[in-house]
Structures are given as structure tokens and as C-alpha cells.
């Protein structure tokens, strides 16, 4: 029998038959519009709350196989990139589709190094926040504010201009993050040090005190670089969808990144790493783990934060790398005792029917916070540490969206469930 890549549909309301082409495992939602009961009919739409089964775009950047626990950036496996690459090299790869030559990487690193400074007015802007403002709230606002410092960024159809803004954003995220932290703890801002690499410079701006030069521990600087590689992109997650959606209005990239960072801030997304640490601290000791798990399963307690994923129905490959990395970091920092509680939670959850049936495994956020805490970052900095590297992925996806001839302003439809037309009632006649 010859198989055809089509879907045959019979509309039982009219008896009419339709044949829709199947491409790349999908049918075009717009093809359903032709299925009508009469000429007045608008035609069929798909209804897919939270986009559980909708491909929003075609993308060549990141590939995930959720069942097999596979993650690749531009075809390169995440574990190999974590072992052999650097965050800036991966940022270049995401943006350009190929690993850079030695010269191209040196040029990109030099460009990023020379765009790490912020306009002095940004210090006044950050100083305007409350003394105890959450650094992620400061980062979201400050990135958005940068759009007012670079009005030329609105020219998003000019490639050279786009690339300049992309370099600025990748370069300035660590500075904004570090200055938000320094504001929160009441310490003076530390300027970027062009002699240092990307993560060592970030650690210097975070931690330097009276010393003239900050010496980052090379193991910790490398560990942070690996964590940045692991967090750089993850196809059409909530914050990337925000980046693409907001970017589709042709707004400047600073405003679109602010929207993406706001989406990442949520505890179900990039805020989960902070929520995991608060959860582990709440559990407090190994003997309390069974009770906590029971409360999660009963639905009374919180979710098991750091577990579960919309796409991965297997172990998140990033969590595997992070769990191993944690012990390398603990060699330098001393063991974070909370890891014993995390390992016990994982052991029980991976054996428990509730979690097994729902295919809930540790995700990228389950172990990362333990490393951040061991490295001396406060818990509220954890989502910020997610946003810094993810800006490379957001920007690569943004550029791909702009270049995609099929894309236009994002504007979904709805199923209207409200009142039918009704006359206005004057206030004296309202019940
Ligand atoms: C990230 O999308 C990405 O790629 C995101 C990310 C990236 O790199 O960009 O990977 C980063 O955001 C990782 C996820 C971090 N979030 C958390 O760890 C928060 C805890 N996890 C969940 O809230 C949840 O698993 C989500 C949000 C991650 C996924 O939610 P889904 O796919 O919408 O799943 P669901 O809420 O429909 O849950 C299905 C079932 C439900 O039970 P039933 O209603 O069927 O009885 O599983 C249960 C849920 O209650 N469930 C959990 C759970 N996650 C889902 N139960 C307990 N603990 C959990 N963590």
C-alpha cells in the first residue's frame, strides 16, 4: 500500500472530507480553517492551552529528545560541550550555527570583554531600588532600562546593529547581575576587569573587596562556566517563547530580553533553583524526607521543586552533569550538607510510583542551587545566575525568528466564553 503524508478528515457535521498535508510530523493549523459548516463559519481552529502540543516555529538551534534525555546545541551533545567548550564559545555557536575558528573566538571574546561597562547613570538607576530588592527584579528592570541608553537598537532589521546589541547584552548581563547583588548587600560596585575571563570577571564584580585584583579560584570559575554552558538555551521554553513573542512586535532586544527574564523569574521556570534551596532548607534533615514526599504526593504540600519537566520524561541530561560537578566544587568549597537531602529525595522519588508514573525526574534546577550556595551566592541570586547565560539562547532564538519568513507578529486567537451582547445599565439601575 502506498502511504501518503496526508491526514484524511471527515467533518461529520457536513459529511465533507478533507485531506491535509503532514510535514515534519505536523499539520498546519491554518489548513483547518477550511473546515466549515457553511460560508458564514470562521472555520476550525486548534485549542491548545499552555501549548502542550503546538510547534510555534521551525528552529535549528537546540534539539531535545525528552524521552531519551537528549539535549544538543546545533548538533553538539550538551555533555561534550560542557566538558570541552566555554560559555562564550557556546554563545558564538548558538548565534552563528558553527563552532568558531580560533581567530573568530578571540575576536568575539575581545568584543564581549570591551562591552562589559554600564553607563554611569545605570548606577543611579540601581541605587533607586529598595535596599533589600530581589536581584532578579533589579535585573529585569535594568535590562529594560538599557533600551533607553541605546535607542539605535530599535533598528532590528540591520544585522550589524543587531549583532552590536547582542554583544552588549551578553557582555553587560554579568555587570548588571553583580551590581544588583552589590546594591542588595550594601557594597560598592566593582567595575569590570578586562584582564579576566567571562566568569572570573563576574566573580570579581561579585566578590572583590579591598584587594586591588580579585583572584577567582580557577576550579570555581570553570564550574560556573560549565553551568553557564548548561543553561545557555533550551528550545521553546517559557522565557524563550516570551522572547520570540515580544520580539515579534519588532521591539528592541533589550525590551524583549526584559520580558524573557521576567518569564524566567517564575518559580515554575528559572526561579525553581531558588525554590529548591528553600525546599531543602524547609526539609532540614534526612529523617524529614519521607514526610515531605508524602505531603507532595497528597497534593497538600508544595511540588517537589527541581523535579519534572514539560519535555523531559527522562533524566534531564543537564542535571546529570551538574550533580557530578557539585562534588568537584565541594572539593574546593567544602560539601554542602543539603546535597545529602537532595540525593535522598531523588532516591525515593525515582522509586516511588507517584513520580515514576508521572515520569518526574530531576531537572536542571535540582542540583544547581547547591553549587551556587557552596560558591557563596545568596539564594535570591540563583535565578539571576540562570538569566546571565540564557541571554545568549534568547538572542539566538530572537534572531532566528526575525530571519524566518513564515514568522510575523505573534497574535493567537481565543474561544470566547463571555456574555453575548447586552445593553448598558445606568448606575442607578444596577443591583
Ligand atoms: C525549567 O521548558 C523548559 O525547557 C524549562 C527549562 C529551561 O531550560 O528553560 O528546562 C528550565 O524551567 C525547568 C523546570 C523547573 N521547574 C520546577 O522544577 C518546578 C517543579 N516542576 C513543575 O512544576 C513541573 O514539573 C513543570 C512546570 C516543570 C512542568 O509542568 P507540566 O509539564 O505542565 O506538568 P504538569 O504541571 O501538568 O504536571 C503533570 C503531573 C501533575 O500531576 P496530576 O495532575 O497528573 O496528578 O505531574 C505532577 C502534577 O501535579 N507534577 C509534580 C511535579 N511536576 C509535575 N508533582 C510533584 N512535584 C513536581 N515537581
Textual characterization of the structure:
This protein is mainly alpha-helical. It has a single domain, classed as Citrate Synthase, domain 1, CATH 1.10.580.10. 49% of the residues lie in helices and 5% in strands. It has 17 helices and five strands. A three-stranded antiparallel sheet has the order 3-4-5. Strand 1 and strand 2 form a beta hairpin. Helix 3 crosses helix 6 and helix 9 packs across helix 17. It is globular, with a radius of gyration of 24 Å. The mean pLDDT is 96. The protein binds s-citryldethia Coenzyme A. The site of s-citryldethia Coenzyme A has 21 residues, from helix 16.
Describe this structure in a few short sentences.
It contains 17 helices and five strands.
Please give the domain count.
Answer: 1
CATH topology: Citrate Synthase, domain 1
Radius of gyration: 24 Å
What is the helix content? 40-55%
Q: Please, what is the oligomeric state?
A: single chain
| SSE series | EEEEEHHHHHHHHHHHHHHHHH
Give the key terms.
single chain, 431 residues, mainly alpha, Citrate Synthase, domain 1, 3-stranded antiparallel sheet, two-stranded antiparallel sheet, 5 strands, 49% helix, globular, binds s-citryldethia Coenzyme A
What is the fold's blueprint, element by element?
Layout lengths: L5 E6 L4 E6 L40 E4 L4 E4 L2 E2 H7 L2 H10 L5 H12 L6 H8 L7 H12 L12 H26 L13 H10 L10 H13 L7 H10 L5 H12 L7 H12 L5 H10 L18 H17 L4 H14 L1 H5 L6 H11 L7 H22 L28
Antiparallel strand pairs: 1-2, 3-4, 4-5
Helix pairs in contact: 1-8, 2-8, 2-17, 3-6, 5-6, 5-10, 6-7, 6-17, 7-8, 8-13, 9-10, 9-17, 10-17, 11-16, 13-16
The chain binds s-citryldethia Coenzyme A.
The site of s-citryldethia Coenzyme A has 21 residues, from helix 16.
Amino acid at each position: 500500500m502506498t502511504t501518503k503524508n496526508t491526514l484524511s478528515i471527515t467533518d461529520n457535521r457536513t459529511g465533507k472530507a478533507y485531506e491535509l498535508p503532514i510535514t515534519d510530523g505536523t499539520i498546519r493549523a491554518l489548513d483547518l480553517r477550511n473546515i466549515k459548516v457553511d460560508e458564514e463559519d470562521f472555520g476550525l481552529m486548534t485549542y491548545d492551552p499552555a501549548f502542550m502540543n503546538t510547534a510555534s516555529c521551525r528552529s535549528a538551534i537546540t534539539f531535545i529528545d525528552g524521552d531519551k534525555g537528549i539535549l544538543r546545541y546545533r548538533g553538539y551533545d550538551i555533555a561534550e560541550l560542557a566538558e570541552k567548550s566555554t560559555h562564550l564559545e557556546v554563545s558564538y555557536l548558538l548565534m552563528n550555527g558553527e563552532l568558531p575558528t580560533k581567530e573568530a573566538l578571540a575576536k568575539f571574546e575581545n568584543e564581549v570583554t570591551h562591552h562589559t561597562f554600564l553607563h554611569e547613570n545605570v548606577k543611579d538607576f540601581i541605587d533607586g531600588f529598595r535596599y533589600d530588592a530581589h536581584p532578579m527584579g533589579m535585573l529585569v528592570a535594568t535590562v529594560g532600562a538599557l533600551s533607553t541608553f541605546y535607542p539605535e537598537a530599535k533598528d532590528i532589521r540591520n544585522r550589524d546593529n543587531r549583532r552590536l546589541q547582542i554583544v552588549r547584552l551578553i557582555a553587560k548581563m554579568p555587570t548588571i547581575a553583580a551590581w544588583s547583588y552589590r546594591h542588595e548587600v550594601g557594597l560598592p560596585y566593582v567595575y569590570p576587569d578586562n584582564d579576566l575571563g567571562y566568569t572570573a570577571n563576574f566573580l570579581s564584580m561579585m566578590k572583590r573587596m579591598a584587594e586591588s585584583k580579585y583572584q577567582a579560584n580557577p576550579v570555581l570559575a570553570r564550574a560556573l562556566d560549565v553551568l553557564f554552558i548548561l543553561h545557555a538555551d533550551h528550545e521553546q521554553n517559557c522565557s524563550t517563547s516570551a522572547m520570540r513573542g515580544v520580539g515579534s512586535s519588532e521591539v528592541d532586544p533589550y525590551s524583549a530580553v526584559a520580558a524573557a527574564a521576567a518569564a524566567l523569574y517564575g518559580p515554575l521556570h528559572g526561579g525553581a533553583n531558588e525554590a529548591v534551596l528553600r525546599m531543602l532548607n524547609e526539609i532540614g534533615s534526612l529523617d524529614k524526607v519521607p514526610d515531605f514526599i508524602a505531603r507532595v504526593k497528597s497534593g497538600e504540600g508544595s511540588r517537589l521543586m527541581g523535579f519534572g519537566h514539560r519535555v523531559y520524561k527522562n533524566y534531564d541530561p543537564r542535571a546529570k552533569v551538574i550533580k557530578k560537578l557539585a562534588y568537584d566544587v565541594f572539593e574546593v568549597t567544602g560539601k554542602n550538607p543539603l546535597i545529602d537531602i537532595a540525593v535522598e529525595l531523588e532516591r525515593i522519588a525515582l522509586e516511588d510510583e507517584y513520580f515514576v508514573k508521572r515520569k518526574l525526574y530531576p531537572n536542571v534546577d535540582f542540583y544547581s542551587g547547591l553549587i551556587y550556595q557552596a560558591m557563596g551566592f545568596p539564594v535570591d541570586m540563583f535565578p539571576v545566575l540562570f538569566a546571565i547565560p540564557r541571554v545568549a539562547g534568547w538572542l539566538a532564538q530572537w534572531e532566528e525568528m526575525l530571519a524566518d519568513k513564515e514568522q510575523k507578529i505573534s497574535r493567537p486567537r481565543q474561544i470566547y466564553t463571555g456574555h453575548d451582547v447586552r445593553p448598558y445599565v445606568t448606575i442607578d439601575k444596577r443591583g
